[in-house]
Amino acid sequence: MPLSLTDTPLASPVLLAPLAGITDLPFRSLVSRFGAGLVVSEMIASQEMVEAKPAMRDKAELGLGAAATAVQLAGCEAHWMAEAARIAEAGGARIIDINMGCPAKKVTRARGSGAAGSALMRDPDHALHLIEAVVRAASVPVTLKMRLGWDDACLNAPDIARRAEAAGIRMITVHGRTRCQFYKGRADWAAIAAVKAAVRIPVIANGDITDAASARRALALSGADGIMIGRGAQGRPWALAEVAHRLYGTPAPVVPQGAALVDMIGAHYEAMLDFYGPALGVRVARKHLGWYLDGADALLRRQILTADSPATVLHLLPGALAQRTGLAA
Predict the structure, then answer these.
(1) Is 117 annotated as a binding residue?
(2) Contact at 8 Å (CB) between 72 and 19?
(3) pLDDT tens, residue by residue, 299-323
(4) How do 8-10 and 226-229 pair as beta strands?
(5) Cβ burial, residue 328 (10 Å; 0-12/13-18/19+)
(6) A single Gene Ontology molecular function, please (predicted)?
(7) Is 177 marked as a binding-site residue?
């Protein structure tokens, strides 16, 4: 059941996906405390990280005593990718992950060597040049996250996986959609099986996996060695530990209820204020509060999500959570 990337063992094969604007240090820390095999940072633009732009450095922040944490890098030039990998490793990253899966237009819209994210799947030779540069630069394991291909006419994930393995990649995560699908339709877990058959390194299935039932089906159809959960953890930081318990018998998480849930959310909220500063933290925290408050009284929820005062938010939370339905859902 446990995965090991050379000298980096993972407690379980249930991993937290990189989510832009979501998997910051406060959220990763919370998910890690409940139990996760690996947590991955938000996608970080390699050149901006090297140029010491504060927003990129913040995304790579690992905190003290970081658990198994990967820093995910995106870019289109080998020099910047390699330098960013060195910086991330020096900052404590246990794993460097290369982004070849982001479908966002602002990441993929450039042509040729200027394209990044899933657009790299249209130019495997250039993609391999970047992979080789990062592997040479890092002494920690390097992993890769990609999609099935650019579109239905370019399902080249198995070929890229073979070449990536030969270049030194230690694990591959595949989102079961093409880039042109974005997040529409359903993830094709069965299509990931071709990647699994192409390589000897661990393959992780990703896309539409939210609970133990979907995880079991994804594993059965893909033959993958583990699963990666993204949106299923929003508002449920214990979700990964719960899936790992049901599939692999790891310790069951204590899902907070009542006062314990109020305390957990309050602590997460205050951690975001500390990390971003009060002015920005209040705004960044709203998305997380919105997920936590699904099913709460509509008026209280709206008051919390529009409040500019942290004291007001913390004062209203207990009442809103007391009226929420499906606390452990």
Answers:
(1) no
(2) no
(3) 999 999 999 999 999 999 999 998 7
(4) unpaired
(5) exposed
(6) tRNA binding
(7) no
